[in-house]
Structures are given as C-alpha cells and as structure tokens.
Write a structure and sequence with these properties.
binds flavin-adenine dinucleotide, 299 residues, Rossmann fold, nine-stranded mixed sheet, 9 helices, single chain
C-alpha cells in the first residue's frame, strides 16, 4: 500500500499509517516539509500556492503517480483540490470518511449519509482520492526516516490572487465547545439573544445558532451557525432554544452527548432528537435557568 497525504496533519499521517506500507506527504513549502519530517517516508515539496485550487490539484495529480491512495483533510479547500485532482487522475473521490481499510485493491470506508443520520459502508477501487472527517483518527504517526524531494512543476494556474483579507475571528470555537447554548427563530428580537449569552456564560459554554439567525436575520456572525451547511459540533451538552429541529440543523448536532431542547410547540421535531425537553415559552424558562444555575454556582 502506498499512500500520499496532502495538506498533512497528525491525524491524516496517523490514518495513512494504519493502512500499512509507504506514506508520503505532499507539502507546499519548506516550512511545512520541516513540520512533517520524521513522520512520512517521503516528503514531496511542490512550490505552488495551495490557495490556487487548479495549481494545487495539478501538483496532487503529478505527485499521486504510483500511489494507491491520496488522503486529504475534509476542509473546503482540500475538497475542491481533491475533486479537481480526482478528475485529472480519472479516479473516484470519497469525502468525509470516518473509517477505512484497504484490501486487494479496494478501499472499504464508512461515511455519513442522509444528513449525518446514517453511516454507509462504501467500496471504491484504488487508486482513489479520499478526504477524512476530522477527529476520527486519533493516534501518533510512527517515527520514520524521511527523504525530501522537490516536485518539478510548471506554473499552470489560470487564477491570480489579487488581494487577501484576513477573516475576522471572534473567540467562538464551537467545534471544541463542551457546552453549546444554541438559539433559533423562537427568539423574537436580536437583543433577546443576550439571554442566551448569559445562560452560556453561567454554564461555561458558547452560543450557537440555527441558519436563519446567522444567514437570514444576520443577528450573529456565521461562526455561530450550526448544521449541515454550518458547523458540525460534538459538545457534552447541546441546548437548543427556540429551534424547530429541521434535518439540516440536526445534521450538525448528532455527535452531541446530550441534546436538550426548549420549545413551546410540543410537536416540534427537535424533541424527537432530544434526550431532555421542556415544552415552554423560552422567555419564561431561560431567565429561570440563568437564575437557578448562577445560584447553584454561587453567583
Ligand atoms: C440546503 C439547506 C441547508 C441548510 N442548512 C442549515 C444549517 O446548516 N443549519 C440550520 O440550522 N438550518 C439549515 N437549513 C435551514 C433549515 O431547513 C431550517 O429552516 C432552519 O434550521 C430553521 O431554523 P429555526 O429552527 O431557528 O427556525 P424555525 O423552524 O422557524 O423554528 C423556530 C422554533 O421556535 C419555536 N418557538 C417560537 N417561539 C418560541 C418561544 N417563545 N419559546 C420557545 N420556542 C419558541 C417554534 O415552535 C419553532 O419550533 C438549511 C436549509 C437548506 C435548504
């Protein structure tokens, strides 16, 4: 088995090592090469800008010659590059893989389907390009001797970066949060979200939201948005307040250990996915929760 890891990180290098055989890493700078030194048998350095998907895909397609599998992270950029590279190589692309094993020229992998509600086991012939879902391969890649090689490439991008603007990032790290208080359209005004922030504060959690709150009403920045097209979260407690629980929202919260919901409609679909539910007006229950929890915490 020969695996090429692109945009390598610890998880991907470990995932590649579990398949056995040779592991190579494709990196886009000398600095990245140093970071993976001793973790891949071969390190290929492509001197192209990885932000240019066509140039990065060209590099991946060239580097992939002779490899059975190309592994990438499941980031937006890597999926774009992976798709282009798979098309250039004429091989299958499999995204968001949760687990995998290779045998007899076939990769058997598990991945979420139906908005994360089911796990499908799929098989593809190798070679193939695969993106790996985050947090699924936890381990240390074995220490190996690395040989570094430069990948000769002609600059081919039809794109040109004209400006780069840093995305403003707050302190919101929903993917890492252990407690998330999430708000939906049950809140009547933007100012009312303050209640959720207060509750999150007393619980030591962060605030998430449904799509309409971030995308339509723009009451919160996109970094709070949870769901199929937002962030996939896995807190110990996900408290959904005034969220109906449409499949696209549920898709982002299924890995939560406990889901609790507050909704004044007893038939709201969120209750079908919740471990605990309170049928009540959020304007009544949230202030009570803030009060009780701060008292319990000695506030
Ligand atoms: C391609 C696609 C992708 C999508 N991706 C996402 C996504 O990533 N994330 C996401 O969230 N959505 C996503 N959606 C939208 C999704 O389908 C729903 O429209 C959305 O989740 C609904 O948001 P909501 O629950 O806040 O609002 P609503 O569905 O309007 O629900 C509001 C809820 O609040 C309750 N409520 C009202 N007043 C009170 C009160 N006083 N007290 C208590 N409860 C109250 C109501 O009973 C209701 O259940 C996507 C849709 C599409 C088509």
């Amino acid at each position: 088995m020969k695996t090429l890891v692109v945009f390598p990180n610890k998880e991907l290098l470990y995932a590649a090592s579990t398949l056995g055989g040779e592991v190579a890493a494709l990196v886009f700078s000398q600095k990245e090469a140093e970071a993976v030194s001793g973790k891949a048998h071969k390190i290929l350095v492509a001197e192209v800008d990885p932000r240019l998907p066509d140039a990065a895909a060209e590099a991946v397609a060239k580097a992939a010659a002779g490899y059975d599998l190309v592994l990438m992270p499941s980031t937006k950029n890597a999926k774009t590059v992976g798709g282009l590279a798979a098309q250039k190589l004429g091989v299958e692309l499999l995204v968001d893989v949760l687990s995998m094993r290779a045998e007899g020229g076939v990769l058997t992998a598990e991945r979420y389907v139906f908005g994360n509600k089911a796990v499908a086991t799929v098989q593809v012939s190798l070679p193939a390009v695969v993106t790996v879902a985050p947090g699924r391969f936890q381990g240390e890649p074995p220490a190996v001797q690395s040989a570094v090689e430069k990948l000769a490439l002609a600059p081919t991008s039809r794109l040109k970066i004209v400006a780069v603007e840093e995305k403003s990032r707050g302190a919101v790290r929903l993917e890492e949060a252990e407690i998330i208080v999430s708000v939906g359209r049950g809140f009547k005004k933007k100012e009312d979200l303050q209640m959720a922030f207060e509750l999150a504060k007393v619980l030591g959690g962060q605030v998430g939201c449904s799509r309409p709150i971030a995308a339509d009403l723009k009451w919160l920045p996109e970094e709070h948005w949870v769901g199929l097209s937002g962030k996939k979260v896995k807190p110990k407690l996900y408290l959904a307040i005034g969220i109906s629980g449409q499949p696209q929202h549920i898709a982002g919260i299924l890995d939560s250990r406990i889901i609790a919901a507050i909704n004044n409609d007893p038939s709201a679909p969120i209750f079908q996915n919740a471990d605990y539910g309170v049928v009540e007006d959020l304007y009544k229950i949230v202030p009570i929760l803030i009060n009780k929890i701060s008292k319990l915490k000695g506030g």
